[in-house]
Amino acid sequence: MAGIKRALISVSDKTGVVEMAKGLAALGAEILSTGGTAKALREAGVKVTDVAAYTGSPEILDGRVKTLHPKIHGGLLGRRSVPAHVEQMEKHGIGPIDVVVVNLYPFEATIAKPNCPFEEAIENIDIGGPSMLRSAAKNHEDVLVVVDPADYQRVLEAAQAGTVSHELRRELAMKVFQHTARYDSLIAGYLEKQVQGSEVKFPKILSLQFERAEMLRYGENPHQQGAFYRELHSVEPSVSRGTILHGKAMSYNNFLDANSALELAKEYDEIAVAIIKHNNPCGVALGATPVEAYVKARETDPISAFGGVIAFNRPVDLAAAKEITSTFVEVVIAPGFAADALAELKRKKDLRLLDVGPLTKVKQEGFDLKKLVGGLIVQDRDLGVLNDLRALSVPTQRKPTDEEYAACAFAWKVCKHVKSNAIIYAKPGQTVGIGAGQMSRVDSVKLAVMKAQMPIKGCVMASDAFFPFRDGLDAAAQAGITAVIQPGGSIRDAEIVKAADEQGLAMIMTGMRHFRH
Fold this sequence. Notes:
This protein is α/β, with parallel strands linked by helices and 517 residues long. The protein has helices spanning 17-26, 35-43, 51-55, 70-77, 83-91, 107-112, 118-123, 128-138, 152-161, 166-196, 252-265, 290-300, 302-305, 318-324, 339-345, 402-415, 441-451, 471-479, 493-503; strands spanning 6-10, 30-33, 49-50, 99-102, 144-146, 210-216, 226-231, 243-246, 272-277, 280-286, 308-312, 329-334, 352-355, 367-372, 375-380, 423-427, 430-435, 460-463, 483-486, 506-509. Helices cover 37% and strands 19% of the residues. The model has no long low-confidence stretch (mean pLDDT 92).
């Protein structure tokens, strides 16, 4: 690549572009550019030829047409190894363009602005940029095309050393088409909302863009391959955006459990800890300190908590760290670790520590996706909350006490994160028994009793869906509960309320179901 004759540079994101241009110029390349890029390069002392001067055609239509010219695209698409192409290029005065450095108008950032005018969005749809990128990428055997500023340095180094490989050229071309595909899908999605209205959540064509962050040792089982992909430009605090500080690489199942644990811990404003095993909570608690919350959560089911995944919604301090290292734990997720806590936890060489950063409140949005063979089912994330339980229907003769309201509010948030059929026994700020994933609700009621390590007498019960028969309620009352929170909506609701009255239970009906399959 020491013989580069010509490079075309036109970028919206000018990160590193001056250094790139200077490096190419030092290799003998004539630098072609336009508009703001040309101005920035000149101000940095780089000799630049305006594209308009090179083509002999001025920019027109308020800059909408700059590079859409045969001397540009002929210089990009002409194959140097095909004599007929070379002959035609010479005949029409078209010089080869050997390097293209282009990134696109900031369409995504533009439409992200509050109340962005439609006209502004349209003017930020890049036409010339994608056209040049696609032309250069198609002819990547002859044209070195760079769309990502992160690639500038290695491309320059390869060019300077004369070691631009076939593999590098193909990789850079691949990145171009990935970039333009995402760019086009953003535009299509934006325009579809303009046509159908912003209230339409589900586009006719769903384009998903995720970046592979790492390969996994295997998937859910050793005979399955696996990889972790990160959603581009997500800002919500999450496991996906976390940083692994210590321990073995995360596995497929670790990611699933860590996500479930953190999302449950995030439900609470108070100090909270959630312990997950096989993608179900086995203990959740609130506490005055992280260590108190952790110990209370572990007390729910110490056997299942062994080898579990723990999420804190506060930074982990030394007291909590010492308690964690007293038993076997797979993963700890938290919005930070105190230095002495980190040192204590690192004594466990395989313990994975995941720092997700501050749990700042941001708008929670996006889809919940489940892959089917040959298809995909898509829904809103279950972000339903009940801000004031006292405003809900209480159809029983006895009303909940203040303590029962507090316990029900706590248990209802846990319930949303337990696989259906879900039953939670709890007292204020602590789970006591959890029944998950049973095919009948009464079996979940019985399982939660069986799993409880503390007395159920005086606890409340949360159910993710209505009771189809009174047997589940009767079994829970026999175990000692005093109140229940459930959605209602069964054809036998009157029978269920009658059963509650017979048992002296208070009942809150939410009108909101929390199935989790």
